[in-house]
Write a structure and sequence with these properties.
Keywords: Hydrolase, Signal. InterPro entries: Amidohydro-rel (IPR006680), Metal-dep_hydrolase_composite (IPR011059), Metal_Hydrolase (IPR032466), Metallo-dep_Hydrolase (IPR051781). GO terms for molecular function: hydrolase activity, acting on carbon-nitrogen (but not peptide) bonds. This is Imidazolonepropionase-like amidohydrolase. This protein has two domains: 106 residues, Urease, subunit C, domain 1 (Roll), CATH 2.30.40; 285 residues, Metal-dependent hydrolases (TIM Barrel, Alpha-Beta Barrel). By secondary structure, the chain is α/β, with parallel strands linked by helices. Helices cover 31% and strands 22% of the residues. The radius of gyration is 23 Å and the shape is globular. A hairpin with a 6-residue loop joins strand 7 and strand 8. Helix 11 packs antiparallel against helix 12. The strands form two sheets. Strands 1, 2, 3, 4, 5, 14, 15 and 16 form an eight-stranded mixed β-sheet that branches. Strands 6-7-8-9-10-11-12-13 form an eight-stranded mixed β-sheet, with helices on both faces.
Length: 431
Amino acid sequence: MKKYNLLYLMALAMGLQTAHAQETIAPALPQEKPVYLTNATIHVGNGQVIENGTIAFTKGKITAVGNSVPAAGSDATVLDMKGQHVYPGIIAPESNLGLMEFESVRATVDVREVGEMNPSIRSLISYNTDSKVINTLRSNGILLAQVTPEGGIISGTSSVVQLDAWNWEDAAYKADNALHFYMPRLIPVNNDRDRSPATNDRMKIAMEQIEKVRTFFRQAKAYQQEATHAATNLKFESMRKLFTKEQKLFIHCDLVKEMLIAIDFAKEFNVDVTIVGGIDSWLIADLLKQNNIPVVLAQPHSLPVMQDDDIDQPYKTAAQLQKAGVLFCLSNDGFWQQRNLGFEAGTASTYGLSKEEALTAVTLNAAKILGIDKIAGSLETGKDANIAVSTGDILDMKSSVITRAFIQGREINLDNKQKQLYKKYEQKYGL
């Protein structure tokens, strides 16, 4: 026992030493002076590009954008961005950022709850603003993220957070914006070594689970229509905003037959449905447009699901949805992977999208789908000053270097643990 305690104390001491080696990046203070970014190439986010333009913002809000912005006052900070590009901050939907730190360490994973039906679970209150991963996203111009729960069938609500905060209350940008339904996969799986009904009839089981969810929704809607309740049902109470359309229903599914069920949910329950994943969405793009169903297109850098699909189908899907007029945005599953979101949009721009359309797919379109487009997603007067400045194309891994970033007008620190390690070993080896 004494030996164990000694080892514990040694490990604790080493942990404390390591803690001192971590980056100490505090959230930025509120904007005090007006800021003018001048002589920049401004990518508004709605398809418009302003050459040699100026963007001004005060108290966190954009006050002017264009080529004829009034001169800055004596109290303003003027930054010459000649040769640089100014973008709206990239928005990462469908992320478990801040809910997971190390995938292999259970104690750092707080992304799922036990049980199948958990509409009352709120991912926001588990969001860890001290995650070391957050700063790596900011370094690539990603300034907002949708923190999404997993597990079960109805997993709970997601929230949009800004990535420079002391705690989850400070981080909250739009709380509980969507309820998440992970639809069971409608793919038959047969295993000759296992003759049990649970294995040989997966389709039947999946359809039964979907019908269970449908029944749950019918009961919840009936509950909302009651004037008084004999007993309070917390799960049904938590779905009130869904039926008043203050909240959206994000249905995670990929195949055509699954998306058809998602459309039926939208019609039967009169709720705003968004499809998440949507690998086969290009096959029914006209139907999605007809029913006004947006798509959060996940993992553009992936292989096709069906062996008969073109090998580059995941790259082309975004352009096909754009051509059909379907509102869509891009996402990258996971948390640390989200830092590559802009570069995945860059890939989409070489497979049918224009550069500005690809930028819109990770800025304004994402804001529309998440319900924050009135205050974020583009560089327009009256919106929050969520701005990323790059020496090159923010969608190009080779040329993009983020030199400055602002969240609600506050200039944030772009340092991170990986940069510090780079500098450390650069010094060690004299590089």
